[in-house]
Structure formats: C-alpha cells, structure tokens
Amino acid sequence: METIQIQLPNALADRIRQEIPSDEALSQIVTEAIQTWLERQEAEKVERQQTLNTLRRAGLVMASDKQRALADAMMAALPLEEAPARSQVEASLAKLKVPLSTEIIALRGER
User: Fold this and answer.
1) Distance between CA 47 and CA 25 in Å, rounded?
2) Is the model's pLDDT at 111 over the cut of 70?
3) What gap in Å lies between CA 87 and CA 101, rounded to an integer?
C-alpha cells in the first residue's frame, strides 16, 4: 500500500481528529471516499458518452472530422463571388413552401 500526504484546512483537520478515533479508521474513510469519487467520475463519463452517442444517432451532433468534411464540401460548392445581400437571402427563403428546418429535415431523409 502506498502512503500519500494531503493538506487540509485547519478547521477540517480538527474536526476529523474529533470524529475519527484512529489513523486506521481515517485511512479506511479516505479510501472509501476516493473510491466513491472515482466511481462517480466514471459513471458521469459513461453517461456523457451515452448522451453524445444518442445525439449523434439523432443527427444532432457530428464528429469533428465529419463537420470539417461537410464544411469543405459546402465551401467548394460556393462560387467565389461576393456574399449575397440580405434582401437576396430573404427573398430566397421566402420562396420556400415549408419552413427551412422542415426543408433541412426532408433533405436529410429523416421523414
């Protein structure tokens, strides 16, 4: 077993001395606390990964390499002209028969 040193605020150290009868008991308590913390960290990591995977499957999150490939493909398809004026963009959007979000969903084949 390895020994480690930790620094605690004086008030906490005093309270520990009052509450815990021996060094062995303190060692056991600290070991359990650290183990519990590590297990909670691992559970949170797994939960974050599961959430991210769920969002990916739903098409709401993309891996960075796919984002870059999509951005590159979009940029390559754009003509090297000036950006359209706001009025042109608004006119193009006004021509849509459905909201833009619905159009995007349809293009992705989700409905």
Assistant:
1) 33
2) no
3) 20
Residue 66 has pLDDT above 90, yes or no: no
Output the 3-class SS for 65-110.
HHHHHHHHHHHHHCCCCCCCCHHHHHHHHHCCCCCHHHHHHHHCCC
Tokens 């979000």 found at: 101
The beta-carbon contacts of 56-63 under 8 Å, at least 24 apart in sequence, are 59/108, 59/110
Model pTM score: 0.51
How many beta carbons lie within 10 A of that of residue 26, not counting itself?
A: 14
Residue type, 79: P
Rounded Cα–Cα distance for residues 31 and 3 (Å)? 11
All structural domains of the chain with their residue ranges: 1-82
Question: CA 66 to CA 75: how far, in whole Å?
Answer: 14
